[in-house]
Amino acid sequence: MSGASAPLFIVDRIGDIMVTSPTFDAEKLRASSQQLRDAAAIYAGKVAVRAADLAGQGVDWAAPRAQAALNSAIEHATPAIENAAARAQAAAAQAGPAIENAREHLVDDYLPRASLAVNQAGAALSARGSLSERARRASEASAVALTTPTRKRRKCRALRAFGLTALVGAVAGAGYILWKRSQPIEDPWAEEYWADLDTDSFVPDTEAEKATFEAGE
Questions:
Q1: Per 3-state DSSP, what percentage of the chain is helix, strand, and coil (rounded to 5)?
Q2: pTM for this one?
Q3: Got the DSSP string for 40-92?
C-alpha cells in the first residue's frame, strides 16, 4: 500500500504480534523547531518594539500633563500656604499675651499653692495622732492650700516708690552740682581778702625812706 502509513504492529510467521517503533524524521523536527524559534523571536521583538513605542508615546503624552498638573498644584497651594502662615503668625501674636498670662499665673499663683499644699500636708502628717487621722488632716490641709488663691505681692508699688525716691535723689544731686558750678570761684589771694586787715608795721615806699628807716634802727 503506497501512501499508507506504516502499521504500528506486525504479525510474525508464528503468529505473534510484534510491536514496531514509530519512525520520526529528525531533520524535519529540527527545521520545524528552528522555524518556531525564529517566529517566536520575531514576534517577541515586534512586541518589544511596540511596547517601547507605546511607552515613549506615553511619556510624551504624560510629561506635559504632569508638568501642567504640578504647576497647577503649586499655583493653588501657594495662597493656601501663605494664608496658613499668616493665620499661624496671627495666632502666635494672639497667643503671646495668653501664654504670658498663663506663665504669670503658674509662677505667682499655682506653684505657691502647690508648695504650700506640700508643706501643710507634711506638717499634718508629722503631727500627733493615728495614721488615719493624720492622713485626713493632711488631705484637708492640702485641699485648702490648693484651692486658696495666692495673695498678690505688692512688689510693684514698692518698686515704683523706690524708683521715685531714687529719681528725686538723682535730680536733687544734679541740681546741687549745677548750682555749685554756677557760683564764682573765690580766690583766697585776691585783694578783697586783705583790704580790711590793719597793721602797725611801717613799710617804706621809697629808697630814701628805706635808708632813714634802716638808720633809725
A1: 75, 5, 25
A2: 0.29
A3: HHHHHHHHHHHHHHHHHHHHHHHHHHHHHHHHHHHHHHHHHHHHHHHHHHHHH
Note the pLDDT of residue 95. Answer: 65
Determine phi and psi for 198, rounding to 5 degrees. -100, 140
Q: How far apart are CA 30 and CA 27, in angstroms?
A: 5
The answer to whether 8 and 19 have CB atoms below 8 angstroms apart is yes
pLDDT at 123: 80
Q: Are 52 and 43 in contact (CB under 8 A)?
A: no
∠ at Cα 193 (187, 196), nearest 5°?
170
Taking the chain (217 residues) in consecutive chunks of 10 residues, what is each chunk's mean pLDDT?
48 48 58 65 62 58 64 68 69 67 70 76 78 79 76 60 58 56 52 48 57 60
CA-wise closest residue to 95 among 107, 87, 83: 87
- Cell numbers 510629561: residue: 63
Q: How far apart are CA 7 and CA 146, in angstroms?
A: 114
Query: What is d(CA 63, CA 213) in angstroms, rounded to the nearest whole number?
Result: 132
